[in-house]
Amino acid sequence: MSTAAPTALVVAIDGPSGSGKSSVSKAVARALGLAYLDTGAMYRAATWWCREQGVPLDDAAAVAAVVRAMPLVMGVDPEAPGVHVDGTDVGAAIRRTEISSIVSAVATNLEVRAELGRLQRAAIDAERAGGFSHGRGIVAEGRDITTVVAPDADVRVLLTASEEARLARRALEVHGAADAAAVEATRDQVVRRDADDSAVVQFHVAADGVATVDSSALDFDETVRAVLDVVVQASGRVDLVGR
Ligand SMILES: Nc1ncnc2c1ncn2[C@@H]1O[C@H](COP(=O)(O)OP(=O)(O)O)[C@@H](O)[C@H]1O
Ligand SMILES: Nc1ccn([C@H]2C[C@H](O)[C@@H](COP(=O)(O)OP(=O)(O)O)O2)c(=O)n1
């Protein structure tokens, strides 16, 4: 019987806003003892930093230059995935509506995508190479992780949910209710933003080899379970069964 330590595991998860990527990926990383990378937080942090630096978001070259010089530190511990820019903890600020409503302007800047994609690959490679800053691999989530950033991941998942379910979840999270008014107040940061983001990246249909998990009719725990099942099946890692 081999006693070699299992190799590091890379899990890539993409999906639209409100599909559950962040919360589910974090729970999956925790269950498997892996690191966790929230790539959406990197686009949000870049947007926060551009505002802080007073750069007009429609000046693509200036935005790219500022993002390339951004002093960003991404935490990868799923228990406390901190985001710091120039020493400031921006974890809460980057989730506010004023950032959600403008982040697509930065996320559709192709030079920014190249730079943040490079940082994301470096973070994933550090875990893959045995950096083991948290565990034995990493769960990375976003919009283009399965297709552009880590198409070679051991496990690739597209997490989807109906527009209705995604709006209701986000309304509950942001407004504490999922009635008609709360859903309408949420529409811009879910539906309009996904439409804008779709101009540069495709996250509504699974690419070849990517497993789809539709969480529309699943509760949170069932969704985590479904993704864990895909991880075991796609990786062939029987040592992970029952986690
Ligand atoms: N399967 C699910 N059923 C119900 N609520 C969910 C489910 N998955 C996630 N949520 C909740 O929906 C909200 C949005 O989830 P989040 O992980 O932020 O989505 P995303 O990162 O895809 O935008 C959170 O409040 C989360 O707890
Ligand atoms: N890999 C990624 C991750 C996020 N983005 C963009 C898309 C979104 O508008 C922003 C913020 O992403 P985030 O995952 O935090 O957004 P949601 O929580 O799903 O609403 O960044 C991207 O273009 N590519």
Automatic annotation (TrEMBL):
Keywords: ATP-binding, Cytoplasm, Kinase, Nucleotide-binding, Transferase
InterPro entries, alphabetized: Cytidylate_kin (IPR003136), Cytidylate_kinase_dom (IPR011994), P-loop_NTPase (IPR027417)
Native source organism of the sequence: Cellulomonas soli
Pfam family of the protein (one): Cytidylate_kin
Molecular-function GO terms, alphabetical: ATP binding; CMP kinase activity; dCMP kinase activity
Family indicated by similarity: Belongs to the cytidylate kinase family. Type 1 subfamily.
GO cellular component, as recorded: cytoplasm
Catalytic activity, as annotated: CMP + ATP = CDP + ADP; dCMP + ATP = dCDP + ADP
Cell compartments where the protein resides: Cytoplasm
An example Gene Ontology biological process: pyrimidine nucleotide metabolic process
Residue sites binding ATP per the record: G15, P16, S17, G18, S19, G20, K21, S22, S23
Span of domain Cytidylate kinase: 11-231
Keyword field contains Electron transport: no
EC numbers, comma separated: 2.7.4.25
Name listed for the protein in its UniProt record: Cytidylate kinase
Lineage: Bacteria, Bacillati, Actinomycetota, Actinomycetes, Micrococcales
